Each structure stands twice: as C-alpha cells, then as structure tokens.
Amino acid sequence: MKFEPRDSLSLEQKDSLEALRVSIDNVLETIPEKRGAMVRLSTRSPKDAALASTKVKEILKKELEARPHADTGSAECYTDDSIAYWRSVSKANHIISGAEALELLLHSNRVSDDIRWTQMHLKKWSMQLVVREWEEIEPELELRAFITKGKLTCFTQYHRNCFVPSLWEHREQVKKLVIDEFEKVHPLVVDMIPDQSYTLDFVLNKDFTSIRVVEINDPPPTAGTSLFLWDSEEDRNIIWGKTNEQIFPVVRLLDRPYPWALQEDIHPPLKQLIEEIRGRAAPPESKSERSLCLVC
Fold first, then answer.
1. Residue 94: its pLDDT value, please?
2. Cβ contacts of residue 161 below 8 Å, gap of 6+?
C-alpha cells in the first residue's frame, strides 16, 4: 500500500504536508553545524523508500569507486561490495531538509502501512514522527542483542549476510564491550519494560574501542533475529535463555565471506548496479550454506 500521488491529494491534505515540511525544517535548524538528521516513525523508518531513490545509487557508485579491485571476482571484492551497499543504504536516509524528509515518508510502504495500522488501533496505539540528529556510523558494525527477563542471552551482527573481517578479528573485544554496555544500560531502562525482555541495538566505533546504543526495540519475533533463526527451536531457546548447555551470552558473527550468489538481503536493482559498476556479467554460482561461528 502506498500514499496517493500528491496531485490527487485534497487541498487540506497538501496544506497538512506543507505544515509538516515547515515543522521538520524548524527542527533541522536546531541541529548544530547543519549536520542533518534521519526521519522515522516511532515504529519503523522509511528505508524502503531510500532503497528505491536516485540518491542511494549515486552514493553506492562513490562507495564502490573508493574500493577499487583489480580482481572484481575475488572474495575481498565481494566483501567490500557488501559493506559498500550497507553504508550507501544508511547514508541515503540522511536528510537535510523537510522536503527530503517528505520525499522518503511519502514513498515508503513501511510508513504507509504503519500509519494505516495505527489508524485501525487508535485506542491502543499512538504514532510519533521522530527527527533524530544525524551521526555518521559504520552500519556494518551494528549489533543486535537479545535480553530476556533481564538477562543478556545472546547477540549477533545486525546484517546477517555481511562478512566484516575486522568484526571477526576483534570478536573477544566486541563481546566485552557489549556486556559492559548492557550492564550500564539495563538499570536505566528496566523499570520501563514490564517483563524486562527487549532487543538492544548497538554500533561499534571503527577502532573497536567504544560502543553505543542505537535504539531499543521489542523482543522477537517483532524484532528480527539476524543470525539466530526464529524458526529454529534451538535458536529460540538460546534467545529465551533456556539452554543450559550454553555459556551466555552466545555470540554469532560471520567468520568468512558470505557467497555473493546467495545474497538475498541486497536489494536486487542495487545488486545489479554493483555488478554493472564492477564489470561482472553475473554473480558466481554457489551452493554454500550460511557460515556461522558460535563464540561462547
């Protein structure tokens, strides 16, 4: 489902959108150094609109040009391509004006669906528009942790098909950073979460010397589980902290490049663009299974 085209909107609707644009511009004016922001609903972001934008294609081209490879069929090149993709998607959500914000919001199925859902449940749910100051991060260093009844049971890299060599190399330091940050954050939020079960998203700095919280979300299955498979009883038990055989937290990170031919998380038109820029006719065939490593 999508919003109606602007030329089919009523005058009242157009006035409402204009008022929203002005409001967002006013908020952006308060952000230091005109760093811009990301815009989202209290439920989800309009990242699906960013995927279909011209902006993301332009950013992706620059990201790939910054990572030249003589052998574009090498595992190293495919690894860089995956990282470049997620960085481009992240940057495409950066807005510096109310007009840019509306462009994303009005072309997002996620936004449209969430608003319609809220309209059907007004007595139980309210929707907020969030304008968050922009901060540059390395999205490939995002992590998702699962807390069940106050216990950090496990965490995983956020992008399940993106092998990040430095993340794997620093896995022990990463584990320590996550545990330490959780122990700081949990006491601050515990009283706001009835059963003390939630999902906590982190991002590491590129030197692996610090970590910070990105956001707090509902527990699975509302929140995605990345390298933990929700359809697997074993994985659900790990998330729920019901497995006595494991030392918590259980950590899952990719320990080797993920087969490019199996990259289902990359938006197909952008995957095709990557192939064209790299001069590859088609992705190599592969029947490899997802590579996981359990760090206990």
1. 98
2. 82, 254, 258, 262, 263, 264, 265, 266, 290
Per residue in 108-119, pLDDT tens? 999 999 999 888
**Are 254 and 156 in contact, with CB atoms under 8 Å apart?**
no
Please answer whether residues 221 and 230 qualify as being in contact, where contact means their C-beta atoms are separated by less than 8 angstroms: yes
**Residues 65, 157, 47, 109: is their CA dihedral positive or negative?**
positive
What is the distance in angstroms between the CA of the first residue and the CA of the last residue of the chain?
43
Residue 254 sits at φ, ψ, to 5 deg, of: -70, 135
* Cα–Cα distance, 281 to 257 (Å, whole number): 20
- Contact (CB, 8 A) for 145 and 249: yes
- Report pLDDT digits (tens) over 177-225: 999 999 999 999 999 998 999 999 999 999 999 999 999 999 999 999 9
Q: Which element (helix H / strand E) includes 129?
A: strand 129-133
Secondary structure of residue 259 in the 3-state scheme: coil
Q: Are strands 211-217 and 198-204 parallel, antiparallel or unpaired?
A: antiparallel
Question: What pLDDT is attached to residue 156?
Answer: 98
Who contacts 160 (Cβ-Cβ below 8 Å, separation ≥6)? Answer: 226, 227, 254, 265, 290
pTM (two decimals): 0.89
Distance of alpha carbon 32 from alpha carbon 36, whole angstroms: 9
Q: How many CA atoms lie within 13 A of 288 on its CB side?
A: 15
